[in-house]
Amino acid sequence: MASQIVDQYGAPVALGSELGRGGEGAVYEICGKSDQVAKIYLKPADHEKTQKISLMLNLGGDSIKEFAAWPIASLHRHPGGPTAGIVMPKVSQPTEIHELYSPAHRKVTFPKADWRFLVRTALNCAAAFQSLHTNRIVVGDVNQGNVLVSEQATVNLIDCDSFQISGNAKTYLCKVGVAHYTPPELDSYKDMRTENHDNFGLAVLIFHLLFMGRHPYSGRYSGAGDMPLERAIKEQRFAYGRNAQQLQMAPPPQCLSLGELTPVLGNLFERAFADPRAGKPRPTATHWCNALLELEAKMRKCSRDPGHFHCEGSPCPWCRIVQQGGPNFFISVSLKTAAARSANINLHRIFFEINSVKPPASSLKRALRKPTQSLAPRPFEAGPDSNKIPRMLVAGITCGGAVLTLMGIFYSVVAYFSVPITLVFSLWWLILWLARPLKKEIRQRKATLKNCREGLHKAKQNLSFVLQHHIELFENKINKLEEAKSRYESLGARRDRDFAQLQASARERQLEDYLERCFISSYKISGIGPTRVVTLESYGIETAADVSYKRVESVPGFGPKLARTLVNWRANQESRFTFNASQGAPASAVQNLDMKYLQEKSQIQTMLAGGPISLRAITNGANAELGRLDENLAELELALAQAKLDATLDEG
Amino acid sequence: MEQRPFGEGIVDDQPAFGTNSFAENPEPRVPCVLILDVSSSMAGDPIKQLNDGLICYKDELTADSLASKRVEVSVVTFGSEVNTVVDYTTSEGFFPPKLEANGLTYMGQAVNQAIDSLEARKQEYKNAGISYYRPWIFLITDGAPNDSNWEQAAQRAVEGDKAKSFSMYCVGVEGADFETLAKFCVLEPLKLQGLRFRDLFLWLSSSQQSVSRSTPGDEVPLENPTVGDGWATASV
Fold it and tell me: I want to staple B17 with a disulfide (CB 3.0 to 4.6 A). Which of A8, A104, A272, B6 is the partner?
């Protein structure tokens, strides 16, 4: 860039080196001004943009210039010419906000940032929007790239020339946007924006910051087919809200929930993303400021992990996520603050406690043996033999019938009557005899005895099944804890092994680099003259790295002898290679490795530390259930004993 | 209200991080399957240029902090057998394989395997509550399919493309059977100029960077690789 650039007053502006380039223009240093930069558009601004920029030069108050890359001067190719660019304040810490809210990035770019830092950044975003809105300026194109975050959690807004500005009886529109941050009711980026539109983008930014980079509308969609984010926004499918289930959405696994914030904040998110009452304005920047200040006042330090901070009123959500098998989102903070502190747990003590937890057991022996001696057979309920008289009458008639029948041998006519009568009455007598009340009761008592035996048998089977089930649960848990223990004990060795592998692959890479710089042409190798060198090159064999017995031998004119010579030469070169340990495995890879093992360590520690409690919970839960079954069994035993006695009682 | 600074802080410089974890990196994903021909006709310079192109592709994705979180690469190769040599990973875990050429051209089977893997991957995204952009399938070959039921695979690819389940791009290297290749995609297959694999992958990476800046479900106009100094020519 030459020196023909001037500002709006015609004063020359000397551009320095290029700092960056985007779709719209390139950014340059300005000689002599370390706190300002110049943005030169790829093509000169049109009339409207020129007007917009000159309006912005008059508009921006000092309070806005503190956090926004607001135009300070316009730039022109010649005095009075079209606007070719702008001068704006230089942002010294250009970290895009997505590098903070993304947990994976945050560990690297902001390793010390805990949740308090994220909440503070959210507060500062809200404060910046509040300032702009007070000055009737609308951001319009809210996105993950034009909010920058400093080391102190303060934010800077860039790309201010796309803001929607009103003045001189005209509104200069924003015209661009990023759909993740665009409210459902905005149909086109070319439409007029309102503060209420901005407040959607602001709410998404705050959600990203508080919810570990999650998007409010990215959830587990249970319907068929794809659910693109843009459609989820249009259909207001807020995955964390009260109505999520009706919308076929569920929050992703291993996530913070609205209930783990202050009720006020939870409500603001509901109103921003899920309120079905159309037309009602979203929470404003001021609402967010107040709610986030309240959250800061209610921030509590986790008692277990020094990297964890959370809202009072619920247990630490970050520990909960780790317990559920998720990552420790603030591992880098824990690492920094707890690395010095001996973070090892006392395995001996924990396993002493684990081993002292009794497995589930049936308390049958205690519950049973209610005194059975005092039991006595119940007397028969049946009264006097109530059908004795009818029975005797019927018997008499039967006998009479029998006598008549005998006589019927001589007078056959009599037999015609007496045989049926005898048969009918003898049958009747049999029925009456069987239906004697006492006999009936004895039969009932025997049936009861049988039922009691069967019932008891079943209950015993059930008890042993339930007992077995709980013992298995208990043993599985013990096995898992034992396995975790051995993983815990092997952490150091596994880390060292991985580290050695990293070093080994670094050595291999260095060796490869080294061999690739050993050109055959620069060495005197017996039998390999310039012609042969050219032949080898034409077969892609240029350096020691390309040499192998098979490859050389396959080149026409190269026999086993030359191949061996070259392989020996390569071995000779290899032997001269020395590994530079300082350029060994890259520091980032080593750190990643340590982070991985620290994460595993913290997961295992949480699991082991909670081991005795969860084992006791298994035993207690099991024993409560077994106790109920035991009671039941004891009652059945008692009933059986009674039934046995009852069944032995005889008519006598 | 005034912004409030947060204490003090120091930044360590280190590039790597756990972008392959859904919880730690919940950014929406741009899945991309590369289906690469490693049949014996690719031996020599073509396979070497292809390998270099893959390395360049990784470097470009890594350099972009947003694309490094959003673009996921999978590589399926086909020669006499079909192999998934890279399973879905962000650039962090993408170590370009050193491909070697040999064997026949089991293209149909490779396309089937790629589509199957995409469907499985989408389900994983859904379970984890991760949004995703329309996936890309990039088929690169210098020959024609040798397997028996490639027509069925081709039809499946075209149907998936039409249903917007994924975008299918076919690139033929000199010597490819473009008439057959055209049956695998809705768009015309592209013809690679010479062995400009490097330029192809630069284009792929920059297209995916602009896609990963758009919104899942958006149509993104891609730079036409056949105009100007592009790496391709139209095949007809």
Answer: A104
The CB-side HSE value for A578 (13 A sphere, CA atoms) comes to: 2
pLDDT tens track for A342-387: 456 778 888 888 888 888 886 555 445 555 567 777 877 766 677 7
Q: Mark whether A248 and A396 lie in a shared domain.
A: no
Structure confidence by residue, pLDDT tens digits, A602-615: 778 878 888 888 89
Chain A segment 226-285 residues within 8 A of B by beta carbon are 226-232, 239, 250-255
Active site residues of A: 141
Residue A273 resides in a domain: yes
Nearest to B27 among A102, A155, A255 (CB): A102
Q: Are A37 and A29 in contact (CB under 8 A)?
A: yes
Q: Which two tokens stand for residue A13?
A: 């502006």
The helix/strand/coil state of B32 is strand
Which domain covers residue A430, as residue numbers? 389-435
Q: Which of A96, A117, A128 sits opposite B6 (nearest CB)?
A: A117
Total domains in chain B come to 1
Residue A240 has what pLDDT?
95
Give the span between the Cα atoms of B55 and A239, in whole angstroms: 38
Residue B8 has pLDDT above 70, yes or no: no
Contact B28 A229 (CB under 8 A): yes
Show residues of chain A in contact with B21, CB under 8 Å: 104, 327
DSSP string for residues in A74-118: EEESSTT--EEEEEEEPPS--EETHHHHSHHHHHHH-TT--HHHH
Look at residue B137 in the predicted model and tell me its pLDDT: 93
Q: Minimal Cα–Cα distance from A145 to chain B, Å?
A: 9
Residue in B23, B28, B133 closest to A326 by CB: B23
pTM to 2 decimal places: 0.65
Query: What is residue B56's three-state secondary structure?
Result: helix
Q: Verify whether the Cβ–Cβ distance B16 to A589 is below 8 Å.
A: yes
Among the partner-chain residues B69, B165, B216, the one whose CB lies closest to the CB of A102 is B69
B129 contact residues in A (CB cutoff 8 A): 214, 218-220, 239, 250-253, 255
What's the rounded Cα separation, in Å, for the pair A428 and A431? 5
Report the range of poorest mean pLDDT among A37-41, A73-77, A535-539. A535-539
Residue of B nearest to A331 (CA): B24
Residues with Cβ within 8 Å of B46's Cβ and at least 6 positions away in sequence, in order, are B101, B142, B173, B195
Residue B17 has a pLDDT of 40
> What CATH number corresponds to the domain at position B81?
3.40.50.410
Instruction: Give the gap in angstroms from C-alpha A102 to the nearest C-alpha of chain B.
Output: 6
Range of the domain at B93: 40-140+163-214
Query: SS3 for A637?
Result: helix
Q: How many CA atoms lie within 13 A of A539 on its CB side?
A: 19
Contact B9/A144, CB-based, under 8 Å?
no
Whether ipTM exceeds 0.95:
no
Residues 582-621 of A with CB under 8 A from B: 587-589, 591-592, 595-596
A355 shares its domain with A223: no
Please report, to the nearest 10 degrees, the dihedral formed by the alpha carbons of residues B106, B109, B113, B114 taken in order. Answer: 60
A358 & A428 share domain: no
Q: How many C-beta atoms lie closer than 10 Å to residue A87's C-beta?
A: 21
**Among A67-81, A91-105, A225-239, B222-236, which stretch is predicted with the lowest mean pLDDT?**
B222-236
